[in-house]
Write a sequence for this structure.
């Protein structure tokens, strides 16, 4: 079911001790337990420890930033989806533009990762988003339509119901240049329309669609006020408990 959700992508930042301190502060500041669902996505080595700090059964959840497409085996240095589930992860980010760009992750590979995550009982947060060149060439909708069709829409209705989509324009990630709320809304509405075509109108209404790209404590309220923006995937601002909490409280 569609829900408001804020996910913090810590990327490759912090030490374990700093990560524990950050999550303790996030838990303390959000002790009221009201508001949206929240997912913290620390690096792999922090997952179990960070998960232990999250109150059971509440609105704070654990997520990973990636997983391998195979169930297990001789893949040195990789992490399988069921390993993530076994340390308490509920969510996994897949298709982040940094994975696509720096690690060559293709739509084909991502479609396999999605299957692996779902088979392990994880809820994927599937990222799509265009480069500045694509936007300036006026090809944003074609590009995102293609990413959705190739990476995501092979899932069955039941599988797709577990997925959160994140629209993350590459030109806005880590640049301080946020999409305007109108730019975000128009792409989110387009994504919802594509979901309705691929599945049905109810699936489109039920899908949570997050915005990501330099969202922060100052602009979150405006972004989240858009009818098709259900929350955010937050990078830099998720590393400061107070800012992250302000974003969480921006609905
Ligand atoms: C991200 O990497 O998912 C992201 C949105 O980063 P930032 O908020 O730092 O732009």
């Amino acid at each position: 079911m569609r829900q408001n959700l804020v996910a913090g992508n810590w990327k490759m930042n912090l030490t374990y001790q700093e990560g524990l301190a950050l999550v303790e502060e996030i838990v303390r500041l959000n002790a009221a337990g009201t508001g949206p669902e929240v997912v913290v996505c620390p690096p792999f080595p922090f997952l179990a420890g960070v998960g232990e700090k999250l109150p059971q059964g509440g609105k704070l959840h654990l997520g990973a930033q990636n997983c391998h497409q195979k169930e297990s085996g001789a893949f040195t240095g990789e992490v399988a989806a069921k390993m993530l589930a076994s340390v308490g992860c509920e969510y996994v980010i897949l298709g982040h533009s940094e994975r696509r760009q720096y690690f060559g992750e293709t739509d084909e590979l991502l479609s396999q990762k999605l299957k692996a995550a779902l088979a392990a009982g994880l809820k994927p947060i599937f990222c799509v988003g265009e480069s500045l060149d694509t936007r300036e060439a006026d090809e944003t909708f074609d590009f995102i339509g293609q990413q959705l069709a190739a990476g995501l829409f092979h899932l069955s209705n039941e599988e797709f119901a577990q997925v959160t989509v994140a629209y993350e324009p590459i030109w806005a990630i880590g640049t301080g240049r946020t999409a305007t709320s109108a730019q975000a809304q128009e792409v989110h509405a387009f994504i919802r329309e594509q979901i309705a075509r691929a599945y049905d109108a109810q699936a489109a209404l039920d899908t949570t669609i997050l915005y990501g790209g330099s969202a922060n404590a100052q602009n979150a309220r405006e972004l989240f006020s858009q009818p098709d923006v259900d929350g955010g995937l937050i990078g830099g601002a998720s590393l400061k408990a107070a800012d992250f909490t302000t974003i969480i409280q921006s609905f």
